[in-house]
Amino acid sequence: FQMPGYRGGAEWSGACVDMETGVMYVGINDFPTMNQLLVRKDAPTQDINGAPMKKAGEVLYQKTCASCHGVERKGNAGFPPLLDIQKRLKSSDVESIVEKGRGLMPGFRGIPEQDRQAIIAYLFNSDDKRRYKIATDTMTAGKEARIRYRLKEYAILLDQDGYPGVKPPWGTLNAVNLNSGEIEWKVPLGEYPELAKKGHPNTGTQLFGGGIVTAGGLIFIGASADEKFRAIDKSTGKVLWEYLLPAGGYATPATYEVDGKQFVVIAAGGGGRQLTKSGDYYVAFALPE
Questions:
Q1: Tens digits of per-residue pLDDT, 216-241?
Q2: Rounded distance, CA 227 to CA 242, Å?
């Protein structure tokens, strides 16, 4: 088990900083994920030194990509399938995504160019005539051939009802003083309505999405699985206002001004790893005249 898990602490959501006070506001996930190695009976383990690029790419895919996108490229929760990737993307697009990342997928700049080309040849089933040559001694190639394990797909430790299997709060908003390193306040962010009805409010939920802090002393943030958008007092963490979005707001909001009037807008796309309903909304807010 790993605590915090793959999805946080603060790994995914980003943070905002009040430059006047030096306080950073950041969402934290507090639940474990399970790490498990599986025997790679369904993955090729032969020496790839001197193999065709497509065949080498299959081995490298199982080593690098299968834990997220599946051994058979059918995808996992939150990770798209790659079986028909040629219908959606060009090979140059995939190379850029692997190197730089996109959305929740981080960039893998450390993957050698030759490895990226081999993986792309495998994904696109291209008849690449080049041969894959490991740029080290034969001992390294032998080690590559002996890899027989892979990481199982990302899995959260859940209880029998599908909630994180540790004591809440499971998602919190934190005010961290960057000058002293102290946490000034920490409050649960989000809740599960069905648990609140049973007398368990303010559990916090899994968080995906950053916040912004404004000169008016407010933090605006979505992120929570209950699909609400909130305005929070930056000094105390108290929720001053909340709004149920048409779909989850798992993006960082933005603020802008038109004719002297301030607006706050958030993309409400839902879906993703929160597994809530999807949408295609932008919702903007402003104070009444």
A1: 999 999 999 999 999 999 999 999 99
A2: 10
E-state strands within 110-217: 131-132, 149-151, 155-156, 171-177, 183-188, 211-213
Residue 89: Cβ within 10 Å count: 16
Of 97, 45, 39, the C-alpha closest to 69 is 97
Cut 0.70: pTM above it: no
The pLDDT of residue 274 is 87
The three-point CA angle 228-155-72 to 5° equals: 115
Angle between helices 113-123 and 91-100 (to 10 degrees): 130
Distance CA 205, CA 28 (A): 10
As given in the structure block, the two tokens for residue 20 are 């006047």
CB 46 within 8 A of CB 208: no
Nearest CA-CA partner of 185 in 170, 173, 171: 173
Extract the tokens encoding 153. 């797909």
Contact 283, 268 (CB under 8 A): yes
| Cβ(2)–Cβ(32) below 8 Å | yes
For 134-150, the pLDDT digits (tens) are 765 444 444 444 556 66
